[in-house]
């Protein structure tokens, strides 16, 4: 589960990590006022106006603008809000922007990268850091991986003091910066572990320009991206309160309401399956026969007829779907429930694309009979003898 930058900043602050002051706004006039407010309260001569969307790479897409007056803040806000934001991480058509963060501008001496994520290989959290932070970190990872340090973190003991020091020296922090950066690493590790995060990323973490008061500058987070483990949300009420359904793919949101696991993919064969393992093998076998799955849709073990009908509505609502493969191994989920849902979906929405159905398991005989009787009403339907036969039939339709 992703949250917005303005929410991430709130969490960072809760754990003691410094961020520049900022105000959330939803229109250009409010952005203008926010600039004045930040100037009055904190003496900020410069501010940044930042699009609040779940995608990153905003700086590169024109979603982060430096402004030097209230008037400029209004113009920048108007500009960002008036069109979809396209970044390397959004779909090609971009995403709508409805919220902006106006944050106090910081004089940057140097930008760093600091993140904690889960290392799937060692099965433990890992801290990743680089002195080459900022908007091109992906490029650094590709061309200059030596500039990145990876340090495993104990999920029980957290980050150790010696690790934080080692990382701080690797990054080239000097004088008071070492302690400031080390403290932020500990706070970030704490945030990550206590909130069941998958990713806690600060990019950039910056050292500010030296002043008389702070001859070594200060270390502060200018951007934060947090992502959390969906499976842990039952015990993370605070995190869940940050959920923004408008940022999710609408079909995925609808699926969630019905207890379906749905993920949209790039191919054109819609799949309806029960169980994640079966969904995986169904996608594999589609690919084996030269097809490309359009989605991953697991109706789960105990799906109701209503939920399965909704699943068909979701697949049929996707214009890229040119054929559908239903692969059900009835256990707790009964084949006749699926058959009834197919019949309802045929009546309600209609199958305008070929449909191949493979059913096995609990109540399969009843299901076959139901489908046999309904065949006249569903001319696009074919029955697969087994999974291979079903996959061959549906891929042949697509190829034709
Ligand atoms: P994104 O990662 O989506 O591109 P960031 O918030 O990291 O967005 O902003 C992009 C760049 O804008 C940063 O790398 C930094 O150079 C600059 N920036 C962001 N916030 C501030 C700020 N408060 N003051 C000064 N510069 C900023
Ligand atoms: Mg960033």
Coarse shape: elongated
Number of discrete helical segments: 13
The overall pLDDT, averaged over residues, is 94
* Class inferred from helices and paired strands: alpha+beta
N- to C-terminal separation? Answer: 39 Å
Q: What is the CATH C-level name of the largest domain?
A: Alpha Beta
* Rg computed from alpha carbons, rounded to a whole number of angstroms: 26 Å
Strand content: 15-25%
| Low-confidence runs | none
Q: What small molecules does the structure contain?
A: adenosine-5'-diphosphate, magnesium ion
- Please write the string of helix (H) and strand (E) elements: HEHEEHEEEHEHHEEEHHEEHEHEHEHEH
CATH homologous superfamily title of the largest domain? ATP-grasp fold, B domain
Number of strands: 16
Tell me the domain tally: 3
Question: Main sheet, how many strands, which sense, barrel?
Answer: 6 strands, antiparallel
Helix content: 25-40%
* CATH architecture classification name of the largest domain: 2-Layer Sandwich
Q: Provide the CATH topology of the largest domain.
A: D-amino Acid Aminotransferase, Chain A, domain 1
Domain ATP-grasp: 9-233
Catalytic activity: succinate + ATP + CoA = succinyl-CoA + ADP + phosphate; GTP + succinate + CoA = succinyl-CoA + GDP + phosphate
Cofactor: Mg(2+)
Pfam families: ATP-grasp_2, Ligase_CoA
